[in-house]
Amino acid sequence: MVFGGSGLVGGTIVNFYKQRHPGLAEILAPSSKKVSLANCCDIRDYLMRVRPDFVINAAITTINAGSQLTFEINYVGAINIARAAAALHIPYIFFSSSATLPMGENLVEEDRLPLTANLSNYAKSKLMAEQTLAYMHRHEGLDYSCLRLAIVYGRHDHKIQGFHRMLFSIADQSMPFLFTTRGIAHSYSNVRKIPWLIQHMLENRHEFSGKTLHFVDPRPVELAHLILFIRDRLGLSRPKKIFVPYTMARSGKNCAGTILRLLTRLGMKATLPPELMFLGALYRPQILSRARLASSSFVDPFPEETVYSRMPVLLSYYLDRWSQQNLITSFADQATFNDLIKHDFTHNPQALLDSIHGDATAPFADLAAPVDLSQRKPGT
Q1: Which end of the chain is more exposed for a tag (fewer CB within 10 A), N or C?
Q2: Burial (Cβ within 10 Å: 0-12, 13-18, ≥19) of residue 168
Q3: How far apart are alpha carbons 365 and 114 in whole angstroms?
Q4: pTM for the complete prediction?
């Protein structure tokens, strides 16, 4: 069972088991309408009824959600899943975040931030969940593994979050300058590799039970270099290679927030991207150690794959998607939509409708074969 199956990480896991390797496991991915993580009874009753062989929790609320919703989904939901998993004696794979770690280089799994009131709701909830799961492993026999992800990249991020928000800003040419400092690097996590690790962890519980692992690419990436690489790949002139100081970027963010609040009073609803709460992280390095993962029995299925090597696939997927959704217009000509159909749909829909009525509404011939009524069951 996968919670959060509609998100980037959860969706990749579901696709891995359902489409890529359908014989490994039958995956259930209940929606939030079917099983609310904020409802203890929903979780308990569903898991007890289905009784899965393992459970994966990749579900989170939006990173800028209020304290109550963040607490209920990210923490209470995660712990109630753990309580059910412990009762069923099944493995529990929990996804955490590098938001629980300080800034710095060569950060190991034990380098958690102190749990204080000034942390963001998102970081606080993930940090609390990590600590409670470790407690349950020691005292309640919970068989769990925690995967800490850094900056995640991959296809099928329908919400445009994190790295893909930056990618969108570059493609939309809404990033005029570089909001970072020269030489600042971060760790990145390739979502395509995650299901391979999960399958390996499930097959080797004795090695991974009770462990927290940093799941990141071998080499960190300099943020400014990556931004300019994407810019050049798209053939754009912006962002310019001008580094904006952090104090100036923070002042700009505060001013923009003030303006948006004033506009809200006039009836115009607009918000800043939630990722701006991590603006300071763009000016400080965060490089996670992968020594524990490297020393394990897991073998990387795509050892040479990086965010750079995946960029052609990511750009092709997202530019096509965003152009079709009319979120960006600069690359609309890269879409595969037939030009004549596109023109008629935009400028002369009646002519397009008449054309379809003329030659594209006949019943499918292969479905129009005579039906032997004697073979039908009564009432059908």
Answers
A1: C
A2: buried
A3: 68
A4: 0.82
Residues of the chain with pLDDT under 70: 260, 263, 268-277, 329-344, 356, 358-380
Query: What separation in angstroms does the CA of 67 have from each of 61, 77, 260?
Result: 11, 14, 22
Q: Angle at the Cα of 73 (from 70 to 77), degrees rounded to 5? A: 140
Q: Is 104 left (phi over 0), alpha (psi -120 to 50) or beta?
A: left
- In the structure encoding, which two tokens stand for residue 139, read together? 């005292």
What's the confidence (pLDDT) of residue 378?
53
**Rounded to the nearest 10 degrees, what angle do helices 223-234 and 163-171 cross at?**
40
Report the distance separating Cα 272 and Cα 260, nearest Å. 8
Give Dmax over CA atoms of the chain in angstroms: 81
The domain spans of the chain are 2-325
- Computed on alpha carbons and rounded to an integer, the radius of gyration of the chain in Å comes to 24
Report the pLDDT value the prediction gives residue 361, as an integer from 0 to 100.
62
Q: For residues 176 and 170, what is the distance between their CA atoms, to the nearest angstrom?
A: 9
pLDDT, tens digit (0-9, with 9 covering 90-100), for 314-337: 998 999 888 888 887 666 544 444
Provide DSSP, 87-98. Answer: HHT--EEEEEEG
| The pLDDT of residue 101 | 96
Cα three-residue angle 115-117-123, rounded to 5 degrees: 60
Specify the 3-state DSSP secondary structure of 36: coil
pLDDT of residue 335: 43
Q: What is the DSSP string of 291-343?
A: HHHHTSS---SSTT--TTTTHHHHHHHHHHHHHHTTS--TTGGGS-S-HHHHH
